[in-house]
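pasting for the record
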Amino acid sequence: MADTTRFGISMSQDLLDKFDRMIQKKGYTNRSEALRDLVRNALIEDMWEKDTGTLAGTITIIYDHNSHGITDTLTHMQHHFHHLIISTVHVHFDEKNCLEVLIVKGMAQEIKKLHEKLSSLKGVKHSRLSVTGII
């Protein structure tokens, strides 16, 4: 890694001990790997908050497919937001419920808008948004 820069960090021994226990539990082989992940997560969170850069992620919903008109509404919304949706996966969770995962890519504000619209639909029981980006 020719472009790697080394730098020092000062912290209390107690905080370092807690950090070491956490990274060991998660399977990191060294502190540098864990710190790089923390920095990437912070930078992606900053992109999300400031709506800068292209993000990708998933919107996962569970809904009652017997709820009046929900399947048509979901299809309509997916067509309306086609510029954000890369792919979808539909799973019959049980006799009454469906799980749908939308893989999305775009600006934070647009992804948030889609998630809010999907979450607020009558018949949607739960939704979760997860985003990431390239740093």
